[in-house]
Amino acid sequence: VSLQGGVDNEVSLTAYITIALLEIPLPVTHSVVRNALFCLETAAGEKENHVYTKALMAYAFALAGKEEKRKALLASLEREAVKKDGSVHWQRPGKEPEVALPYYHSRAPSAEVEMTSYVLLAHLTTQPAPSQQELSFAALIAKWISAQQNPNGGFSSTQ
User: Fold this and answer.
1) In sequence order, what are the beta bridge partners of 89?
2) Read out DSSP for the chain?
3) Which domain holds residue 126?
4) Which residues partner with 84 through β-bridges?
5) Does a structural domain hold residue 38?
6) pLDDT tens digit sequence for 32-42
């Protein structure tokens, strides 16, 4: 479950596997990929998807070249974004507000780094290329991600 950002469901696992298959790359016409994408398309219509699951699905649809689905999920994710200090990120629903701690304690939990990174990948993975607007938004996401690095350049994430 920790590998899935604390989300334990078939949809997020299906999205993970679909991403892995598309990154091989297997073609979207491959029967396993086609079936997985069909499952994700069905799930994408549900209202109660967790923000982490939406981030994974957005990247899977981006890799598959399914622009409409990618854009719809990114629009939904943008409504749930935390925008502050000139950066953008996503956090788990119902998360306690952050406490002001010394700088070396203020790293985000790994699930938040992971889901925000998937949203960034979904913004940048589009054909022929991301629009100027998407690149500007992606820069705000990248700013937050880079602020999560520890002094050695790594992240709290195991991913």
Assistant:
1) 82
2) -GGGTT--SHHHHHHHHHHHHHHTTPPTTSHHHHHHHHHHHHHHT-TT--HHHHHHHHHHHHHHT-HHHHHHHHHHHHHT-EEETTEEE---TTPPPPP---GGG-PPPHHHHHHHHHHHHHHH--SS---HHHHHHHHHHHHHHHHT--TTS--S---
3) 10-148
4) 87
5) yes
6) 999 999 999 99
Token pair recorded at residue 19: 């991403």
Give the number of other Cβ atoms within 10 Å of residue 63's Cβ. Answer: 22
Task: Determine, yes or no, domain membership for 154.
Answer: no
Q: Is residue 156 part of a domain?
A: no
CATH number, residue 75: 1.50.10.20
Q: Tokens in use for 6?
A: 């604390």
This prediction has a pTM of: 0.87
What is the tens place of the pLDDT at every residue in 2-48?
455 556 688 999 999 999 999 999 999 999 999 999 999 999 988 78
Work out the average pLDDT over 88-100: 70
Among all chains, which residue has been given the structure tokens 């982490």?
52
Count of the separate structural domains present in the chain: 1
